Amino acid sequence: MINRDTVAVAIIWIVVTAVVEIAFSFADIFPAAASEEAVIVDDAFNFLTYIAIPVFTFVLVALIYSIVRFRTRSSAVDGAPEDGPHVRTNHRWVWGWMVVTSALVVTVIIHPGLTGLNEVDELAQGDDLELVVEVSGIQWAWTFTYPDQNITGSELVLPLDAHVRFDITAVDVLHSFWIPAFRTKIDAVPGLTTQIHANITELGDYDDDINFRVQCAELCGRDHGIMQSQVRVVEREEFNEWVLAQQ
Amino acid sequence: MTALKPLGQAVLFAIIGFLIGGGLSAALVEAAGRDEMKEPVIAGGYLFALIGWLFGIGVWGSWVREWFGASVKPFEAHGWKRYFGFSTDHKVIGVQYGATMVVILLLAGALAMLMRVELADAESNLLSNTDYNTVMGLHGIMMIAVAVAALMGGFANYVMPLMIGADDVAFPRLNALSYWIVPPVAVLLIITPLFGGFDTGWTAYPPLASQGATGNLLFLMAFTTFGLSSILGGLNFIATIITMRAPGMTWSRMPVFVWAVFAASLISLTATQFVAYALLMVIFERVFGMHFFDGTIGGDAILFEHVFWFYSHPAVYVMILPAFGIELEILSHFARKPVFAYKWVVRAFFSIVALSFVVWAHHLFTSGMSGELHGPFMVLTELISIPTGVVFLAAIGTIWRGRLWLKTPMLFAMGVIANFLIGGLTGLYLADVVTDLNFQDTYFVVAHFHYTIVGGEIFAMMAAIYYWYPKITGRMYNETLGRIHFIGMFALYNITFIPMFIVGAEGMNRRVASYPAEFENLNMFITVAALLLGVAFLPFVYNMVNSWIRGQRAGDNPWGARTLEWQTSSPPPEENFETPPVVLEDPYGYGDPEAQHFEFPPDSGHAPEPVGGDD
Ligand SMILES: [Cu+2]
Ligand SMILES: [Cu+2]
Fold this sequence. Notes:
heterodimer, A: about 250 residues, alpha+beta, Immunoglobulin-like, 2 domains, 5-stranded mixed beta sheet, about 40% helix, elongated, B: mainly alpha, two-stranded antiparallel ribbon, binds copper (II) ion
């Protein structure tokens, strides 16, 4: 079982894995995270990637090594090469593989799986809820109602450092409420009110960062692609002024 | 043109059927005093036209007549004419399915090119938004059809009976019926643009699917009809594998591809019913004015999503299990080593089947369904990685220290390992609830499922085409062109789809004709790569057509493979084997000089009984 090829693959695998893991730690593929929920989502992504990289490199290194090392030249001549060794299985490898892959799966189920769910739930249930916005989707526009402030319009303005709840529904067909800067989305369903929360942490404006937009994310017919609204996260005072101006 | 007589008759019967069905429906609508006439007439007309088509092509002449005591006239033809009638030879049907699906693949690929040209810049300019949606929906459903039927209808049909030493499938006429159901599906889909197209994508979520142009109705009827074909095929393969195995072909000696077909057939037979229910209910909403899914008057739109994915998630394993089977089969024969951990692979296949039925709601994490369902469906979905991992172990274990013979089929089979690795690992982010809250409905999802279905299954299909080409045609394809095809397709495939993960993570959602200008550079890059990927198919098409006409004679077993389909002539005679084989042990005895998979016993005056029949 321990032979030169196995040792060679192990060494290459460790080196490649280390390089890829380090490279990934510098990578920055997401736009700015503007809510506590977004940080949870991005952290979960990063953790999953750190776990996935060794699996990825293991299979790829073993595959490429095999191609380079075990290919036959007899393909120039007609006819199949000689047979390889008659190895049907290897109990230690199979059981080792089962144990390792199962352990990895249990790990990601617990973290970031169940822990992530729990963190998002806890944020939603926090008693610091400050603002409720009612969102309604209709082909192909969003309407935002601030019930406590008595405002209805097509503009979504939110205060910094606030815990906001969105109560979402649809008039005609399914839509989906997604603000990429906040990372979370939920469908707008006719006849049903769905909810989503954002604990906002960053200022932002669609004009500077397109991820401050409400994007319909569920195919809803002809103009689904352009069913967008701009989002502005502003300082508390500016929000209050905006509310007064709207009323 | 007598060769095309069955087709002409089928078209004529279809037209008569349409007139009868449409007329009856119109009369019923009149009698009921409703004013919506168009869709009931089309639906009723289609139902009768479908029956007329099937009767005309041969169901009447070679089948139904005997129910009334009349004699049947089976379809008989030779040469290319065999492919244009109600042939019951599984090899003819396999080629009919395979060729049809390759044509649909190329058409749907051309639609993808059209979408990519539209997406080259941020504005929507080439296509109207409605046309874009129709093109996208057609691309989706046509590729789903290819993914479901190319390996099962094509290769499982052709190869599986040969591999188990049978002379045909268990129900040859049912097999022909399941193929001839497919052309009406293609016709319905192709004419949807004439009826205003359809806006829903292939997933047909109501209430959108219950509204809008009549193209939606045609799409729903096409999808439902296709489901029927799939159910019949699954039933037939299960019966074949249970009852038609050659003497000595015990379960534990079956080639791994046969196991994969058996596992996938269990899903086709049992899960497809559910998508048919879901689609029929939407058809009823349109035709009879019912309201199952209208939440504003007591219906439930999310219910449709549950029923739809109860089929459509397992369906991805109808696509990928046969692909795993082909991959491992080819790796073994081209590494000259037994399939590694065979028994674990079979266990993995059936674990995947079982788990595939209890993970569907991972498509609904953002649907607004009850939050209590999130945890359980995440856990169950992630458990599927364990049996899937076994397939990777088997693949690596099989080639490890083997004698790798890098012919085109082997290259594609190894491409499956690399691509499906990416497809499988990126599935993790969609199984995890919190990362899915962000990625759902973005290009990340588009990239992920293309990696599993194209990178996994379509690459396996290419491996299968090159591997069995000499068996099916009797001629060898051109190896150089095959390698060019592999290198071009593998490189450009990855160059096209890797950036989609990135653009999705950056915030681009899917199913859109226009997008924020920030994503323009990446999209332009993807479009150029995708067009080049289209070009990479040209050597494939040329090679297939040209080699069929003037390729070198291949001989019976050019790969020196040990499974039974290679132990008969290329192409095989109508009865498959001149002498029925007797199986002695499994086909993976590479490296064991004593190993012998089969023998052809000298004619002892009585044909041996199939093993399946007597236990
Ligand atoms: Cu939409
Ligand atoms: Cu799924």
